[in-house]
Design brief:
Layout lengths: L2 H25 L8 H77 L4 E11 L7 E4 L12 E4 L2 E9 L4 E5 L6 E6 L5 E6 L7 E7 L9 E4 L11 E10 L5 E8 L8 E8 L12
Organism: Desulforamulus reducens (strain ATCC BAA-1160 / DSM 100696 / MI-1) (Desulfotomaculum reducens)
Function: Involved in formation and maintenance of cell shape.
Keywords: Cell shape
C-alpha cells in the first residue's frame, strides 16, 4: 500500500475516534450508566484515547521545553552581561587602588621635603614611541606655574628637567636623553662627573669625565652635585652597574641605572621652588 494512503487512513481514524468520543461525551450527560454498546466502544477505544493523550502531553511538554530553553538562554545572557559588568568594576577598583597608592607616596615625599622644595604634581600625558627615553609630555604648563629648567623627580630619584612650556602642558627631557647633562658625583667618595644620556635607548645613563685614578666601582650610588645650578645638590639619581676606561685613557666612564623606573612613568613631581639648597634630602645610602 502506498505510504500516502496509509497516512490518510490514519488521519481518518483519528478524526473518527475524536468524533465518537465527542458524541459519547455529550450523550453521556445526565445519565448514570452507559449503554452496553457505548461501554463496548469506549473500552475498545480506550487504548487509542490513551495514545492520543500521550501524544498531546508530549506536544505540550515539548512546547514548554522550547519556551523554557528560550528563557534559560535569556537568563544566561543576562548573567554573562552581569559578570562582565562586575569584572569591569573590579578592574576599575584595582586601577583606582594603584593610583591612590602612587599619589599617597607622592604626598608623603612632598610632606617630607616641604622645607627644602615646593612641588607641583603632574601626570604624563604623552610619549614619543620612537624616543621613549627622551621627551615626555606633562599635563601642567605656565598656567600652573611651570617654567623651563625646573627639575623633575619621583620619590625614587631624579628623572629630568623641563625644556619646553605651553599654557597647559610642558615637555620633560629625561636624564636618559642623549642631550641631557646633569652635574653629578659619587655619593661615597664625592668624586664629581657629568651624567649624560645614551643613544642606546635602553634607559641607562653614564657618568663621564671621571679621572682615571679615582675609585669607581659597581654598586656605588650617584647623586646630583649641584654644579650648574639647575639641579639641587644631593638628589639620588642611580647606581653604577659597569665601569670602563674612555678611549683617551685619561678618564673613566660608569654606566648608571636610574633609581626611578623611567619606562613606566605616570605621575611626577616638578620642583618649582628651592627654599634651602644647602639642606640635602637623604639618599638611598644614608
Amino acid at each position: 500500500m502506498p505510504r500516502n494512503v496509509s497516512y490518510k487512513n490514519l488521519i481518518l481514524l483519528v478524526i473518527l475516534v475524536g468524533i465518537t468520543l465527542l458524541v459519547m461525551r455529550f450523550t453521556n450527560l445526565g445519565r448514570n450508566q452507559l449503554s452496553p454498546m457505548e461501554a463496548t466502544i469506549k473500552d475498545s477505544l480506550s487504548p487509542v484515547q490513551g495514545v492520543l493523550m500521550g501524544v498531546s502531553k508530549n506536544l505540550r511538554n515539548g512546547a514548554e521545553s522550547v519556551a523554557s530553553l528560550g528563557r534559560l538562554s535569556q537568563e544566561n545572557k543576562s548573567l554573562k552581561d552581569k559578570v562582565a559588568e562586575l569584572q569591569g568594576q573590579l578592574y576599575l577598583q584595582e586601577e583606582l587602588k594603584q593610583e591612590n597608592e602612587r599619589l599617597k607616596t607622592l604626598l608623603q615625599y612632598q610632606d617630607q621635603y616641604k622645607s627644602n622644595f615646593s612641588f607641583k604634581t603632574a601626570t604624563v600625558v604623552g610619549r614619543d614611541p620612537g624616543n621613549w627615553f627622551g621627551i615626555v609630555t606633562l599635563n601642567k604648563g605656565s598656567n600652573h606655574g611651570i617654567a623651563k629648567n625646573m627639575p623633575v623627580v619621583t620619590p625614587l630619584g631624579l628623572i629630568g628637567r623641563i625644556v619646553g612650556v605651553s599654557k597647559n602642558t610642558s615637555q620633560l627631557m629625561l636624564i636618559t636623553d642623549p642631550r641631557s647633562g646633569v652635574g653629578a658625583m659619587v655619593q661615597e667618595s664625592r668624586i664629581p662627573g657629568v651624567l649624560e644620556g645614551t643613544t642606546s635607548g635602553g634607559g641607562e645613563t653614564r657618568l663621564i669625565h671621571v679621572p682615571k685614578d679615582t675609585n669607581l666601582n659597581k654598586g656605588q650610588i650617584i647623586i646630583t652635585s649641584g654644579i650648574g645650578g639647575t639641579f639641587p645638590k644631593g638628589i639620588p639619581v642611580g647606581r653604577i652597574v659597569d665601569v670602563s676606561n674612555e678611549p683617551t685613557g685619561l678618564f673613566r666612564t660608569a654606566s648608571v641605572v636610574p633609581f626611578a623606573d623611567l619606562h613606566r612613568l605616570e605621575e611626577v613631581l616638578i620642583i618649582t621652588t628651592i627654599y634651602n639648597p644647602e639642606i640635602l634630602p637623604p639618599t638611598e645610602g644614608d
